[in-house]
C-alpha cells in the first residue's frame, strides 16, 4: 500500500521573491494552497517532509494530507505544480490543491512491465523499448492508481503494447482517446539490426555494381 505523506504547514506572511528566499533560509518550502471552497493562501511546508516525499517519488500526482495549525483533522491535497532547483534538484516551491472524493484530475500514472521472463522476444535477445514511462488518465483525486502493470508474456520481437492493454479501474479514463497509442515495443537485438542493415547495404552495392556493368557494356 502506498504511504500517504502528511505535510505540516503554516500560513506564509512574506510573499514575493524576497519572502520566498527568506522562507527557504528558515528551513521551509514556500507554496500555495488552493481549491475547494476556500480562497488560495500562501503557505510554507517543512523542507525535510517535502524532500522525503520528493526523493521517494510520492510528491507529484499522489494524494497527501496537510496538517494545518488550528484546524481539525487533516485535509487531503495533491501537488499540482512542483518547482525544482535547476542545479540542486530540490523542490523550491509547491502548489497544493484541496481535493475530495468528487474531484477529478488528470495525472500521469507510471507503468511497470511484468513477466519479462515469459516473453519469447526478450529471451531471444530482444530489447524492451519503452515509449511511454507513464500513461495520462483522468482519475478521482482520492483514488489515483499507483501504477499500471503491463504483461509482456508471449510477446515476440516486433510486437507492441498499446493503450488498450491498460486495465483501468472504475472511474479512471484515458486522456488520449483518439488512438490506441504505443506504450512499448519488443525491439530486435542491436546485433541483429546491424546484420540486417549490413545485408541491405551489400544488396544496394551489388545492385549498383550490376547497373554500372550494364552501362559499361553499352
Mean pLDDT: 86
State the low-pLDDT regions, or none: none
Order of helices and strands: EHEEHEEEEHEEEEEEH
The name of the CATH architecture of the largest domain is: Beta Barrel
Number of strands: 13
How many domains make up the coordinates?
Answer: 2
* First-to-last CA distance: 78 Å
Q: How would you characterize the largest beta sheet?
A: 6 strands, mixed, barrel
Shape call: elongated
- The class by helix and strand makeup works out as alpha+beta
Beta-strand percent range = 35-45%
Taking strands numbered 1, 2, ... along the chain, how are they ordered across the largest sheet?
A: 1-3-2-6-5-4
Instruction: Tally the helices.
Output: 4
Broad CATH class of the largest domain: Mainly Beta
| CATH topology group of the largest domain | Ribosomal Protein L25, Chain P
Summary tags:
2 domains, single chain, Ribosomal Protein L25, Chain P, six-stranded mixed barrel, RNA Polymerase Alpha Subunit, Chain A, domain 2, four-stranded mixed sheet, alpha+beta, 218 residues
Describe this structure in words.
The protein is an alpha+beta fold. It is 23% helix and 36% strand. The chain contains four helices and 13 strands. It has a six-stranded mixed beta barrel with strand order 1-3-2-6-5-4. Strands 10-7-9-12 form a four-stranded mixed β-sheet, with no helix packed on it. Strands 8-13-11 form a three-stranded antiparallel β-sheet, with no helix packed on it. The chain is elongated.
Amino acid at each position: 500500500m502506498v504511504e500517504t505523506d502528511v505535510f505540516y504547514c503554516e500560513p506564509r506572511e512574506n510573499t514575493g521573491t524576497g519572502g520566498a528566499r527568506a522562507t527557504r533560509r528558515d528551513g521551509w518550502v514556500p507554496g500555495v494552497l488552493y481549491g475547494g471552497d476556500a480562497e488560495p493562501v500562501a503557505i510554507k511546508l517543512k523542507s525535510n517532509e517535502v524532500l522525503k516525499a520528493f526523493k521517494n517519488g510520492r510528491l507529484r500526482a499522489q494524494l497527501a494530507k496537510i496538517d494545518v495549525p488550528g484546524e481539525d483533522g487533516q485535509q487531503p491535497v495533491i501537488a499540482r505544480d512542483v518547482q525544482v532547483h535547476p542545479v540542486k534538484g530540490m523542490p523550491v516551491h509547491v502548489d497544493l490543491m484541496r481535493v475530495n472524493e468528487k474531484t477529478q484530475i488528470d495525472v500521469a500514472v507510471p507503468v511497470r512491465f511484468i513477466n519479462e521472463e515469459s516473453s519469447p522476444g526478450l529471451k531471444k535477445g530482444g530489447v524492451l523499448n519503452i515509449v511511454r514511462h507513464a500513461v495520462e488518465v483522468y482519475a478521482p483525486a482520492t483514488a489515483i492508481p499507483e501504477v499500471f502493470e503491463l504483461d509482456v508474456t508471449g510477446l515476440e520481437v516486433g510486437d507492441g503494447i498499446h493503450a488498450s492493454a491498460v486495465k483501468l479501474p472504475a472511474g479512471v479514463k484515458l486522456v488520449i482517446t483518439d488512438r490506441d497509442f504505443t506504450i512499448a515495443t519488443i525491439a530486435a537485438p542491436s546485433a541483429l539490426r546491424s546484420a540486417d542493415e549490413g545485408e541491405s547495404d551489400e544488396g544496394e552495392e551489388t545492385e549498383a555494381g550490376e547497373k554500372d556493368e550494364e552501362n559499361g557494356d553499352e
